[in-house]
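Escalated from tier 1: S-adenosyl-L-homocysteine holo job.
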Amino acid sequence: MTERKDILSLLPEELEQALTEMGEPRFRAAQIFQWLSRGVRSFEGMTNLSKELRAKLDAHFCLYEPKVLSKQVSTMDGTIKYLWELCDGNAVETVVMSYKHGNTVCVSSQVGCRQGCAFCASTIGGLVRNLRASEILDEVLFSELDSGKKISNIVLMGIGEPLDNFDNVMRFLELVNHPKGMNIGMRHISLSTCGIIEKFPALAERDLQLTLSVSLHAPDDETRSRIMPANHGRGVAALIGACRDYYEKTGRRISFEYAMIDGVNDSPEQAKLLARHARAVAAHVNLIPLNHVEERPFQPSAPEHLKNFIQILEENGVNVTVRRRLGSDVDASCGQLRRKMQKTQKGGQRST
Ligand code: SAH
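Tier 2 regenerated the structure:
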């Protein structure tokens, strides 16, 4: 028997085509898509379909429902952190944050990560596998269904490097943006990358209205290469050039993510250099107070250094914000929860 197809990764028009090929009328596709969009994850549960069709679908397609391995709710700000078990026993994290303007979900795009940033918990065990488009979609859908919080914004800032899983992430964006699906507007979506610049032209080509966030974290090659292996062979100048090309092609302003690390990237000289880069590409700077990760030697910058850094950026005409720390009591920083689970259940992850 051929391997069963992942029905959830199909767009409505592709599902229609697949059903037509199976000799079924088109309207069945709309019915099935509606069930899937409501979170129904068994063909048995699709009660307006005949028993025969349900059995046929079961033979053709696979369906899996992510299971909540753990759910932590912050007592400080209501942030919810989920750890989901995937169909092969791997686990990924999703965070739901509530802001005045609505609820934002932070999704993972891979199980683990191969980029090796020195301050990040997600990358400690390396990359296990890419997530399928449907698995990323289910992070959004099941977070909404379980929490009862209507999701209005998505950030691809969880575990993984989205541009290392380009095709599946693009398909996820199409699915989540689809008018017949969750219909979340591209302007409400941010994609964060450590700077895989080879993929920038292909992303710009799609002319999506999403926000591209670039994890810069250091304005000079010496520091950036030290904390971000992705800088090797690319370099800050090439990254800034790629950002300029992206901005010129799409007209969408880029956001620079910058985690403030004590004594590493928080000097006045680095603030000035960062300001120069930001101005060159009209980027917004988002400063992130570093979350200390147990296995990592880095500490967050002292408050007075942060204040000084902000002042220099502002004096140099840069638009700067400081990210609020949400969910700090629920290990809400990238990869911390999955990491904790790995440590308690040694060998708890499997690769496919
Ligand atoms: N791989 C992508 C997206 C995932 S991480 C990227 O690198 O952008 C989302 C953001 O959190 C990135 O800016 C990342 O550098 C940052 N980050 C990772 N670990 C962190 C930590 N311990 N404290 C603060 N920010 C962190």
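The domain at 5-62 is CATH 1.10.150.530 (DNA polymerase; domain 1).
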